[in-house]
Amino acid sequence: MSETKFPKELLDKLVTAENIVFFTGAGISAESGVPTFRGKDGIWNKLKPEELANFNAFLRNTDMVWEWYQYRRKIVREAQPNPGHLAIAEFQNYFPNVTVVTQNVDNLHKRAGSKKIYELHGNIERNFCIDCKKWYNDVPIDENKKGAIKCDCGGLIRPDVVWFGEYLPQDEFKQSEWEAGRSDICFVVGTSAVVYPAAYIPFTALQAGSYLVEVNIEPTDFSSHAHYSYFGEAGKVLPEILSEVKKIKSSKKQ
Ligand code: BJW
Ligand code: ZN
Contact at 8 Å (CB) between 26 and 36? Predict the structure, then answer.
């Protein structure tokens, strides 16, 4: 096989792996123009998470929090999946079981074609009434209409995302733990890995003997735990790994 920059251990794992998990965070969508939370271009350099991403903030500043989500919905709707999302979806053509466990709420993995996706922090396109629980999905964004919208019952409508102090969707979290626990390789992509319990997922994989590969533009809290960290943009690194996969799979056929 021709020379590659990837460690032999990773290439060997790619030959035999059946179960692959991608644990993703905001960084994978950065190249689609969706801002990250933390880091140098993170939105929370200006806006503090505790002021926005919790239920009390929503009750105190309903209009402001709602408008923040409408603003982010607009960005996400105009964004397109980037080569990183697309490479992850293409892994499905080469491995029998590819699972995306994402902390992102932006739908970009789905739009890229990934099939098995667990959204640990919800989805920005879904909303529900906090009183009668009626769903209000795909709400229009009218820039002339400021402020939150109300349910037919008069209740406040909130985005179906997980705020600080709230439980993650239990089924999705359990399924993610199960997939991490049987993974052969777990890629940890574009996440600062500081928000729990989501950040336990790669540790579950690690404890189960999975090979951990981090892809990030800079070192994170997780770097010292990864078997291999590749520092670069996800939209460049993941297609490079995919092209190694293609080489491996085509040489196996011959
Ligand atoms: C690139 C790149 C490129 C850039 N290529 N890379 C255990 C220990 C400590 C604390 C806790 C714990 N357990 C629970 C907690 C408390 C809390 C928590 O974790 N706090 C810590 C922050 C201290 N957790 C919770 O409250 C959770 N709930 C919970 O625990 O429930 C139990 C409970 C119930 C009742 C009472 C008490 C407890 C819920 C957490 C919910 C987080 N929600 C948010 C908002 C979602 C909605 C929304 O989108 O608005 O989720 S916060 C925000 O952070 C969002 C993200 O999904 C999450 C993670 O961020 P992520 O994805 O890692 O993004 P960034 O910006 O941090 O990092 C981007 C990375 O990309 C960087 O590393 C860049 O370098 C990199 N990058 N460009 C590759 N091109
Ligand atoms: Zn209602």
Answer: yes
- Nearest Cα neighbor of 100 from 208, 232, 111, 165 is 111
Q: Can you name the CATH fold of 38-78+126-161?
A: SIR2/SIRT2 'Small Domain' (3.30.1600)
Of 192, 205, 57, 55, nearest to 130 (Cα)? 55
Nearest CA to ligand 1 atom 8: 196
Residue 149 CA to ligand 2 center (angstroms) comes to: 11
Neighbours of 196 (CB within 10 A): 10
Structure tokens belonging to residue 107 = 């739908």
Write out the residue limits of the CATH 3.40.50.1220 domain(s) in the chain: 1-34+82-121+168-254
Residues 219 and 235 sit within 8 Å (Cβ to Cβ): no
The pLDDT, as a whole number, for residue 1 is 43
Whole-prediction pTM: 0.96
- Return the residue whose CA atom lies nearest to atom 59 of ligand 1: 195
